[in-house]
Amino acid sequence: MEEKNQPEKKFSTGAISATVWKNVRTDKEGKAYETRTVSLQRRYTDKTGQWQSTNSMRLNDLPKAALVIEEAYRYLVLNGHDEPKPQEVSTNKFVGTSCKPEVIV
Questions:
Q1: Angle at 51 between CA 68 and CA 63, to 5 degrees
Q2: Is residue 84 part of a domain?
Q3: Per-residue pLDDT at 105 exceeds 90
Q4: How many CB atoms lie within 10 A of CB 86?
Q5: Most-buried pick from 38, 51, 90, 103 (CB within 10 A)?
């Protein structure tokens, strides 16, 4: 039986929220590994007063959406979830190298 995705953390401001989901996947060799995804939603009440949710944002929602997405990103990076799993690491020798311009005096 496959494990259901679990919400790990939720960031909200007003009606806008970003949820970090923990997902368990299986690689080609059958080994389980975890990944994280982020969903964005806006809550509102419909004409009958029932709460609904959507992933469509209005213009005024965008600053709050940016805030909760940034918090989700910060959470993931600070908790070490920004690293690719070993088989996803590129063999390109330039990946991860600095792109700072060299100053010659």
A1: 25
A2: yes
A3: no
A4: 8
A5: 38
For range 8-18, the mean pLDDT: 96
99, part of any domain:
no
Range of the domain at 28: 6-88
Mean pLDDT of the chain: 82
83 found inside a domain = yes
Assess if residue 75 is contained within a domain. Answer: yes
Q: What Å distances lie between residue 45 and 11, 18, 48, CA to CA?
A: 20, 19, 8
Per-residue pLDDT band for 34 (boundaries 50, 70, 90) equals confident
Structure tokens at 50: 């029932």
- pTM above 0.90? no
Domain count, the chain: 1
**Could you please report the per-residue DSSP string of 19-87?**
EEEEEEEE-TTS-EEEEEEEEEEEEEE-TTS-EEEES---GGGHHHHHHHHHHHHHHHHHTTTTSPPGG
Q: Is 50 exceeded by the pLDDT of residue 72? A: yes
